[in-house]
Design goal:
Structural class: mainly alpha
Distance between the termini: 65 Å
Number of helices: 17
Shape: flat
Order of helices and strands: HHHHHHHHHHHHHHHHH
Helix content: 55-70%
Number of domains: 2
Number of strands: 0
Largest sheet: none
Strand content: under 5%
């Protein structure tokens, strides 16, 4: 590693201002700081010394996502192999089938390795295209603006593949990622200035632009021509009785052994990530707690009240938590420090607003069984107003104390 460090130091003058490759400094700097900590550090007494910085914060979130990544790969292959086994098929066609043959993998749903490899040939291309498209736009805007490439896309690029179905066309992944990065972040100034979560902005664009490829019953299992609804979709049509009749158990839903967006199905994986983020102090426990309490409270109210005409009223609060993207959204989306509320009291209001909105969308509007995406984007839009009113109320209390 010392030789690599020396090589980078020798090449650096060529990329600095006045050097032969100064136009490519942002790319060189991104590689350098990815491999090593910055060489220029603050030594004055006026600076706050801390082990945490933007890069370490981003990497901490990525590490917290690893259980979801594992389930995204394994469960995608597991669901596909189950479908192939039920149809009596021996494999898949196209370049993915050729890749499976090259890897020497089979299609046995009882084989851990077969499920892992089969899921990998679907998940890995989505991950690669996401980072290629996002990396291109990050590098282009950094070059035009003349600043270094920051680590903001590290988390966005890690989240986007997890919130997409396995069958989504790769060209749509590139377009959606481009929209999320450019329209959702860069035009507002880049990392730290976006008012909406870029990953959810990308998914919202894909949902409304290409609904056939990101909704319905044919997109959740990576087998052509095979349809299987998610538990939320089944509950919206026939209630919890229909969910149980379809063979879904609470254990399967909690572990993530159900169809859905690749990285959102496992509430257990999300829980592991939540513990890690809270232990490291990266995520706000106020946002997590208020979102959880508000969503579970309203879901319980609807469950107790019941309805003879709306089957979603029969879904209990814990079922809401382990199906769809609620758990994933609570842990990794609502806690985005840029697009969420900044004030401590405002974070409680912000989380409660999202928790109420997601259950309202799911239950009151069963035509749209998943509501976490719209709820969080609505919360992002309202976050500045929430902070403003919290600060206004705080200042008013201070003025009253001063007068008294």
């Amino acid at each position: 590693m010392r030789a690599l460090r020396n090589l980078l130091d020798q090449l650096e003058p060529q990329f600095q201002k006045g050097g032969r490759f100064e136009k490519f400094y942002t790319a060189f700097e991104a590689i350098d700081t990815f491999l090593y900590s910055p060489g220029d550090i603050s030594r004055g007494s006026v600076h706050i010394r801390d082990h945490i910085d933007l890069k370490r914060t981003m990497w901490t979130v990525v590490l917290a996502l690893m259980p979801c990544y594992f389930m995204a790969v394994w469960n995608t292959g597991y669901q596909a192999n189950l479908a192939l086994a039920s149809a009596g098929a021996t494999g898949i066609e196209g370049w993915r089938g050729s890749l499976m043959a090259l890897l020497g993998a089979g299609y046995d749903p009882g084989s851990f390795v077969d499920n892992l490899l089969h899921g990998l040939v679907w998940f890995a291309p989505v991950w690669i295209v996401t980072h290629m498209a996002g990396g291109f736009w990050e590098g282009l805007f950094a070059t035009v603006r003349g600043h270094e490439i920051n680590e903001g896309f590290l988390v966005t690029g890690s989240l986007i593949p997890l919130i997409l179905p396995p069958t989504i066309p790769l060209w749509q992944v590139a377009i959606g990622t481009s929209f999320g990065v450019v329209i959702g972040k860069e035009i507002f100034g880049g990392t730290g200035r976006n008012f909406m979560n870029p990953a959810l902005t990308a998914r919202a664009f894909l949902y409304f632009a290409y609904p056939a490829q990101i909704s319905g019953n044919a997109v959740w299992v990576a087998v052509d021509g095979y349809t299987r609804a998610t538990p939320l979709g089944i509950a919206a049509e026939g209630g919890m009785e229909a969910v149980k009749a379809s063979g879904y158990s609470f254990f399967d839903a909690a572990m993530g052994l159900i169809p859905g967006s690749m990285g959102e199905t496992s509430a257990v994986a999300c829980l592991i990530g939540a513990v890690f983020l809270l232990f490291t102090g990266i995520a706000s426990w106020r946002v997590m707690l208020s979102t959880l309490v508000a969503s579970m409270g309203l879901a319980t109210l609807f469950w107790v009240v019941g309805s003879e005409t709306n089957p979603m009223f029969s879904m209990g609060p814990l079922w809401h938590l382990v199906t769809g993207g609620l758990a994933f959204g609570i842990v990794f989306m609502t806690t985005d420090p840029v697009s969420s509320a900044m004030t401590r009291r405002g974070q409680f209001y912000y989380g409660a607003l999202i928790g109420v909105m997601v259950i309202l969308v799911r239950v009151i509007n069963p035509a749209f069984p998943e509501g976490i995406m719209l709820a969080i984007l609505f919360g992002n839009v309202m976050a500045p107003a929430i902070d403003k009113f919290v600060l206004m109320a705080h200042n008013k209390r201070r003025r009253l104390r001063y007068v008294q």
